[in-house]
Specification:
There is one protein chain. This protein has about 260 residues and is an alpha/beta fold. The protein has helices at about 1-25, 40, 45-55, 65-85, 100-110, 145-150, 155-165, 200-210, 230-240; strands at about 90-95, 115-120, 170-175, 190-195, 215-220, 245-250, 255-260. A hairpin with a 5-residue loop joins strand 6 and strand 7 (about 255-260). Helix 8 runs parallel beside helix 9 (about 230-240). The chain starts with a helix and ends with a strand.
Length: about 260
């Protein structure tokens, strides 16, 4: 407390000085560009697609800034993957209500996608069983809290089908990961999106899909860096210690992607 009191006057003085400098400066780059997020906040096409997909899937209530930034990166990775391998398939593991699926499919549709978009989800009960690797380091969850968390992420296949009905290149696979992966074992992929929270389904998905990912292909990990789902990061970090990748980038607001 004494430390906070001692720094308060200097902090306020610096804040006022910075505000005055930025108010009267025409340059706009004192410490940071004052217009840094202008395009993002004012009609950017990726931002618009994000909002459209929120509405189409009834997920407006889930909107928040970290999610917006993860999806902003997701969209750009989709564009990159299409440009690198335009004829390979796409896959997603864990779709919840279909928000990310709809966003991805919208871009594929705009690019006259000729492949298939394979979406895997249990479509029942939410998350699978937590393992040792999924233990939350901040606190031990009670059985009641674990069950509430599992049910929170449950989804219904009929609802997702309705949300994604505009896209005829999508195929949904109902079942626990990795039970239905063998149905696509002969396919090649340019893009994989993993949003399955827990260590074991992450590990199973990495083991199956990475060897089927085209060179230059992309894998996105929505849960990477989330403290409530430590197993996701553990699985990704462990896997890529043993398998080479061209580039791995962690997004500060959560999420990560790798380019093969």
């Amino acid at each position: 407390m004494k430390y906070l009191v001692s720094i308060a006057p200097s902090f306020l003085k610096s804040a006022v000085k910075l505000w005055l400098i930025r108010l009267f400066s025409a340059l706009g780059y004192d410490l940071f560009d004052r217009n840094l997020l202008t395009s993002y906040l004012k009609g950017d096409r990726i931002r618009a697609r994000y909002s459209d997909s929120l509405l189409a899937t009834g997920m407006e209530w889930s909107d928040n800034l970290p999610k917006q930034l993860r999806f902003y990166a997701l969209y750009q990775m989709v564009e990159y993957a299409i440009s690198k391998n335009p004829n390979a398939d796409f896959a997603e593991c864990g779709c919840w209500k279909g928000h990310s699926s709809h966003l991805i499919a919208t871009l594929l549709n705009e690019r006259d996608f000729s492949g298939q978009f394979h979406i895997f989800d249990s479509f029942e009960g939410g998350l699978s069983t937590l393992g040792i690797e999924d233990q939350n380091e901040r606190k031990e969850l009670t059985d009641e809290e674990i069950e509430r968390q599992r049910k929170y992420f449950s989804s219904d296949i009929e609802e997702v089908q309705r949300n994604l009905s505009a896209f005829d290149f999508i195929r949904l696979y109902k079942g626990w990961i990795p039970d239905r992966f063998l149905e696509v074992e002969g396919r090649r992929f340019s893009f994989i999106h993993l949003d399955i929270d827990l260590y074991q389904p992450y590990w199973d998905s990495l083991c199956f899909f990475y060897e089927r990912l085209e060179p230059g292909g992309v894998m996105c990990f929505d849960d990477y860096g989330f403290t409530q789902f430590p197993g996701a990061k553990k699985a990704v970090d462990q896997f890529f210690k043993e398998h080479p990748a061209s580039f791995l980038f962690s997004i500060p607001t959560g999420g990560a992607f790798v380019i093969k």
